[in-house]
Amino acid sequence: MEKTKYEQLASDLKKEIQIGYYSENEKIPSLREIQTLKSCSLTTAKEAYRILEEEGYIYVLNKSGYYVQKNISSVILGPQNEFYESVEADDRIQQIMNTVMDPKLISFGAAIPALRYLPIAELHSAYKKALLYKDGFSYGDLQGNPHLRDWLAKRTSMNGYRVSSKQIQITAGCTEAITYSLFSVTEPGDTVIVPSPIYVGLFQILETLRLKVVEIPYREAEGISSTEFEKLIKRHKPKVFLFSANFNNPNGILFRDETKQILAELCDRYGIHLIEDDIYGDLFYTGTRPKPLVSFFSQKLNGPKTFLCSSFSKTLSPGLRMGWVATKTGIQSVSKIARAFKISENHPTQLSVLEYLKRQTYERHLKSLRKEYQNLSHEYIELLTKESDGNLKITKPDGGFVIWIESKLDGDKLLLEAKKLGMAIAPGSLFGLSKHWNHFFRMNVSVGRSPKIREKLILFAKRFRKNGKSKSTF
User: Fold this and answer.
1) What is the DSSP secondary-structure string of 267-320?
2) What is 5-77's CATH number?
3) pLDDT (tens digit, 9 = 90+) per residue, 434-472?
């Protein structure tokens, strides 16, 4: 879509600020001056400056003029609150994912837990017992097995979001839970606001549902700026906030409760529905299980709807395809949509998962996973940092099992180079619609540790060194 004159002017001025033509806290030309310098109308100049102000590039002092933002480095280092009339990501994503998921490669790219970290023997035993149920091969409850929903409701309530079993819909994984939730509160052409970077699969959902997208960047100091968030709400009037507050994939960020509270209040105030991806919430490294963002909403009957989506894919097994939506305000619409696509979920699998959960080993399993993933994250970061001679900037995750890495090299090209070494990474271009993440990539530490894995990581990390000498003791 062709830019308007004021959008083009704003883009040109942003580039001038980014390259240092105007420095931090420096006064920039007045509206009249920019009108002459850029040969534009006063209206165009005003609109361009409005965009720059909303996106945090400039600020205005009464009776003094416009100035470059004091903390401009935090703005220009991240994506620029981009707006997209449509999403066209599926073909690009599919092409890259074919390499990332190649079974011939050691997949450091796919966010899939290795079999060694899953309770396979216990699940086998649970399946054997579940298959003895007389009604195990019937459709089962259309909303999901009542006993499984009851277990999920109790656990979700313990984690801060109080729901009943009647307020849960079982789905085939977290992606389906998010899709049903989005489907229930949007129509084609509605706008959704998402953080950047974010889980790659969400773009395929947004494209399929023909939704517009606004990307809001993560800021190192506060996660998401509430000021930026409110400005974007006022400007684009989004219908939905699609978000992951606990250990976002790919950067592993955990939001503070204070930030969650502010974001919830803003969504409440402007009537924006929340769809929260909490799939990594149980994989925290330290402290207690963090509350989901939905728990900070007022939950008024006439307020925005909230949906908490998750699954067992990252903790028990991705092949189970067992997820759920918990919602106090939208269960009827979600369940109606679920029934439109299929009569019920896989009943034998639901019974098997329930059998496993009855044995009260889930919490012990999670405790072991958290410790292992924390250790692996530390080891991978230490190894990659040493072997790259410190030329990789790695975001230390607060939970989950992926690490987010910045380098001076193009992520898509790195994917091809990694392939030559017999390994796969996930290039940063997958995790946003803008080109900002082209020099980033994601790695999965759940691949584990072994002499072969260590060898591959060292060879890959040397790519970022000026010489090939190993410095690792890992």
Assistant:
1) HHHHT-EEEEE-TTTT-BSSSSPPPPGGGGS---TTS--EEEEEESTTTT-GGG
2) 1.10.10.10
3) 878 889 999 999 999 999 999 999 999 999 987 544 444
